[in-house]
Amino acid sequence: MIVSIHQPNFFPWLGYFEKISRSDKFVFLDHVSATRTQAYLKRVEVLVCGKTKWSTIPLEKSTSSKKSIINRMKIKDNQRLLGKHINTLKQSYSKHPHFNEIFPLITDYHDMESSSISDRNINFIINVTNELGFDIEFVKSSDLNLNTSSTDMLIEILSKVGGGTYLCGGGAQGYQEDWKFKIANINLLYQDFVPFTYCQLGVDKFIPSLSIIDALMNIGFDGVRRILVR
Q1: For the CA atoms of 7, 216, 124, 113, what is the dihedral angle to 10 degrees?
Q2: Rounded distance between C-alpha atoms, residue 202 and residue 174, angstroms
Q3: How many CB atoms lie within 10 A of CB 33?
Q4: Up-side HSE of residue 170: CA atoms within 13 Å toward CB?
Q5: Which of 16, 31, 39, 45 has the fewest CB atoms in 10 Å of its CB?
Q6: Which DSSP string corresponds to 157-180?
Q7: What is the pTM of this model?
Q8: Helix (H) or strand (E) holding 47
Q9: Do 29 and 7 form a contact (C-beta atoms < 8 A)?
Q10: Each residue of 169-211: pLDDT tens digit?
Q11: H-type alpha helices, the chain
Q12: Calpha distance 105→39 (Å, rounded)
């Protein structure tokens, strides 16, 4: 069984969903503290007038270490900023071929009652995965009663969900202790995702690593499914 683990990012890029498509179980790492390296929980790059721009969700400021835990982070109730975020995406993608099909994903995200950014991000990711037709079991790390950290935590997660192979991102080599997986009889599989090109409206040269929103607006669910599953 192949298991992958990742923070519940905001409107993630194609590589995030390619990892999901290759997994039997996907664990949302939502019980750990957010750090500066986890900025993708609240922001992602999109195209605005043919140029890359950060699309960002405003968050409440943390007043304690407990509130900086991912599943306790709250979206700031600022209708002006949230409205601006929706309007920017609407103006940027309204002329794209799959706008009417995809824009409801954005409005559903903002209309969700929960103020938890983790809940909203997870809901978006699961909805997109279902539309893409990937049969994946999703798990939250906060439901696993974990007692370890770092590489030991990853191994504990694999053990609790029954994983024999851990699919990790290419950047994991910089921080995880690979030798521990061998001792735990867990196979390591590095993703090494290379961005695929697709027909991208409004640019002269393809711009990679944007939110999946960009790919969906341009080529729809069927097109994204074809480039992820090869």
Answers
A1: 140
A2: 36
A3: 14
A4: 7
A5: 39
A6: HHHHHT-SEEEE-GGGGGT--HHH
A7: 0.94
A8: strand 43-48
A9: yes
A10: 876 656 789 999 999 999 999 998 888 899 999 899 999 999 9
A11: 14-21, 79-93, 99-111, 117-132, 150-161, 178-183, 212-228
A12: 21
How many Å apart are CA 70 and CA 8, to the nearest integer? 9
| Token digits of residue 30 | 């939502």
- How far apart (Å, rounded) are the C-alpha atoms in residues 103 and 99? 6
In this structure, what token pair is assigned to residue 54? 């950060």
For the chain, helix, strand, coil in percent to 5 are 45, 20, 35
φ and ψ of 70, to 5 deg: -55, -45
pLDDT over 90 at 134, yes or no:
yes
Rounded to whole angstroms, the Cα distance separating 170 from 180 reads 17
The span from the CA of 186 to the CA of 191, in Å, is: 16
Tokens of 172: 């994991």
Contact between 78 and 45 under an 8 Å Cβ cutoff? The reply is no
What contacts 214, CB < 8 A, 6 or more positions away?
46, 47, 93, 200
Residue 86 amino acid letter: I
Would you state the structure tokens that stand for residue 60, as one six-digit string? 């409440």
